[in-house]
Amino acid sequence: MDYRPLGRTGIKVSPICLGAMMFGPWGGTELDESAAMIGRALDAGVNFVDTADVYSWGGSEEIVGQVLEKTGARDKVVLASKFHNPMGEDPNQRGNSRRWIMTAVENSLRRLRTDWIDVYQVHRPDLDTDIEETLGAMSDLVRSGKVRQIGTSTFPASMLVEAQWAAERRGYERFTTEQPPYSILARGIEAEVLPVAQRYGLGVLTWSPLAGGWLSGRYRIGDVPESRRTVMLPDRYDLAVEGNQRKLAAADALAKLAEESGLTLIELSLGFVLAHPAVTSVIIGPRTMEHLDSQLPGADVRLPADVLDRIDEIVPPGVTLNAADDGWSHPALSDPAHRRR
Q: Does residue 55 carry a catalytic annotation?
């Protein structure tokens, strides 16, 4: 495994990060199967595991914690988790306030059965909370030894810059990582987020490299699989949506390119993400051992320039084919109240 520097932290991580979102009730992946996948990933050289408190409402963290404790692998694993999303009915059991951060981290440490989290991340922006409030609380966690590094997930470039300036101004710990969505079908972060990450030396941990399954090889023109996602997430999967029609056409063209290149579409997709010089590690989120085995080889893929050029012809740099895949949209755009009242 070719380990990469996590920004300027001095930590070395594998180019593949094992995402644990599917561990627990959300993915229907129980403890034994999750343990087998963690073991398989570690044996392959993966030393990076990412989870979040909200995944299966704490169930994912509990599974990861049990497995790392039982196997004695905690010290070998760079462990990342996240907070922000609602963890109860109480309006203060969510967000990026000091009040919630101090509670959330203790809950995560308990579920993960560890004394520290290597990378503790803000899962999404919180416009109701001053970034200095968040940075101040997270700085205290670093200085207390409960957290080693702090990061963000799915932050726009302007907020990343604001956070860097706030940390410098107030003498706080600065965010050292960003976790954005990135795939061949969702390349919007190439315009500003990735250049900002390079400018400030942030480690970049990308999620959804297979675009929520669109780049798994199953989506082909004339052969679209039936999925409950069409009903649950129509903006991202219903082919009546123009952006999803563009995704299907691109996925079909990319599958043909992968075949011509002697690769699976999964390998092509992971190789593409890892080819960007700003990217540190790509987070995969397998639900089964079969999924994991199909994705691990992506760590070794090196796409030649001509293949990357052909990918650019199918989906131009900086373009996201469907804005619903951005992961977060500013309320100034999504909430009419911010525009009309």
A: yes
